[in-house]
Amino acid sequence: MDLLKSSARLMIVSDLDHTMVDHHDSENLSLLRFNALWESNYRHDSLLVFSTGRSPTLYKQLRKEKPMLTPDITITSVGTEITYGNSLLPDDGWVEILNQKWNRNLVIEESSKFPELTLQSETEQRPHKISFYVEKAKAQAVTKALKECFEKHGLDVKVIYSGGMDLDILPQGAGKGQALAYLLKKFKSEGKLPNNTLVCGDSGNDAELFSIPEVYGVMVSNAQEELLQWHAENAKNNPKIIHATERCASGIIQAIGHFSLGPNTSPRDVTDFLDCKLENVNPGHEVVKFYVFFERWRRAEVENSEPYLASLKSACDPSAILVHPSGVEQSLCDTINAMRSCYGDKHGKQFRVWVDRVLPIQISSNTWLVKFNKWELSGEDRRCCTTTAVLSSKDATSMSDGFTWMHVHQTWLEESEPKDHSTWLL
Ligand code: GLC
Ligand code: MG
Predict the structure, then answer these.
(1) What does 203-247 look like in DSSP terms, one character per residue?
(2) CA of 119 to the centre of ligand 2 (A)
(3) How many A from CA of 222 to the centre of ligand 2?
(4) What is the pLDDT of residues 295-311, one digit of tens each?
(5) What pTM was estimated for this model as a whole?
(6) Which ligand 1 atom sits closest to the C-alpha of 53?
């Protein structure tokens, strides 16, 4: 488990559909805002946890469709599967706990007697989760009848209704809340309890997250009726929970500000980088800022002005080299000069750039090796380069004067290599 060496400054535990991911925002602007904030200010010392109702199969599908970051921990199938890192390494301890007192076959047998229930797709049936669809009008009565039936058979299970259509049956000890409680207990035993935890959700299966003691919570503005009702009945007077006025990931950013959990200005909210004063200067921020600018330059969302390029060049060491993913080497300053010809080439087109897993490692008193994945979405085409950059702080004793780029090396992420390298600039 490749997590932090000490307590996380902030742990965000967020649902995905209609919370981190806004399915009504085809440009994914709030998600991209969050991504830039996270990578520039939190990635190095905080933990990002996604907690979704989706199975691993549908979760992977969503990651291909949306510009999502790689979380440190992924909790899938409504808190029944906990995995770590990019490789989704399973937590076997959690599986063992869920296996206790769980009789999957009997649950399937009994629930199949309810004609109001329609089984969801095969991918969504998991070792500790059985899922159906049920009409909203029938949900309450069916839930009640199911619970009585299970009780009669001595089955200790949990029935959760979400999104006005989904009904999940899980072991009693499972669910998003229990999975979070398990993680917090584990962190505590390692002496690494996060300084702050913020849970974020929009629907019924998220309600449990908000009942974990000590955590802050945000119900995004677009939260479902069933969650708002749960809140009104169970947590109305808890000052640590807010109903945001902003949708999805923007609601999460709003909550970070509301509870003063750390910086809440996304680099995407800064309109002019030439005169921006930052809350938190660090090498990760430098990387994020550069690629936000690069996207805007090509979309013609910044002015086509020489001072911008001059400022970029002044941040490059004269001898700095860029190793292009094709293997070709060129001076970084020449690459910046070449940006003149691509100003506005993506104007009016779908074009987004974001960075993921930005990891700065200090290699000397004023030098950092920053590794990150740089993603580019251009129309239907989506590609990623694993990038290593060497950055030095201009002032040997502090980071506040900004950084100088000393070297950049990019390689294609597996399966991402295109046939034609010519459209990739940097
Ligand atoms: C996701 C899952 C589905 C589940 C629902 C609510 O949509 O794919 O199986 O029922 O979340 O938890
Ligand atoms: Mg949701």
Answers:
(1) SGGGGGGGGSTT-EEEE-TT--HHHHHHHHHHTTT-TTEEE-SS-
(2) 19
(3) 10
(4) 999 999 999 999 999 99
(5) 0.95
(6) 11
